[in-house]
Amino acid sequence: MPSIELNQLTKRFGAITAVNQLTISVEEGEIFGLLGPNGAGKTTTLRILACLISPSEGSAKVGGYEITHEPQKVREIVGILTENPSLYERLTAYENLDFFAEAYGLSDDQKRRDTIKELLESFQLWEQRNSKVATFSKGMKQRLAIARTLVHNPPILFLDEPTTGLDPESAKEIRELVTRLGRRERHTILLCTHRLEDAAKLCSRVTIINKGRSVAIGTPEELQGKIAGKPTLKISLREITSSIVQAVKEIKEVREIRSNNSEGTLTIAVDDLNASTPEVVRRIVHAGGMILSVSEIKPSLEEAYLKLVKEKTP
Question: SS3 for 306?
Fold first, then answer.
């Protein structure tokens, strides 16, 4: 059974439709991305699923619980990281986790202490447990905020822009942490992000959202494939001659060839990459070409994202 299910989920704020008939299914243990620009409806979707606001239409289940009928059950099994983490900066790291642990009903003092110690050690914050959060770096605050979402051991996590505002090193640490939580510890994670790097590196599947609608869904590789067109080879040569170009043009499977003499590369669109590559290489060598490298050109997730948003959003 999927951990998260959305069926025609819709949310309106007056005349504005923030979420428009979203239908998504997220499997247990999956890191699933909601990818889109700011204002696309990602955070609103997350807030609906966390039972912080109600949908206007449609339905959703989280952990098998219907969000409108069993909101308390949903809140018990999810941890949520908002874009602006709610930490008490005048309290220490330990005091923050202790406060939220009590709020989630961890009444057993020893169990609460053990849980907090385990989390702070796991997130490399134990040595700073008695330091006030106001003295922490952004990366440390983000790690503590994610630790807070886990204090009641929820199987499902909602993470809203977890690397926004972080320096590259801190962002890398948070991505590694999310990977560990999802792939090693088997938490189901719904990740809202506008950062293509996060989506490409973390998510097994992504839905691209714009203006409240899903415009595409699939693995990052599948989304890249949607705009790929003809398979394309990039061949680096020591020297490009007219005889080499002519030899490649004569191959019936070749649909387009572009020559860049300054870089010493040929870009060749073909019908079938596996079938055509050996023949292309053979013809170039036969024409006297010295091949330095052969590679396939794939569109980036960024290219897929921009093209799909532009084409499919009304």
Answer: helix
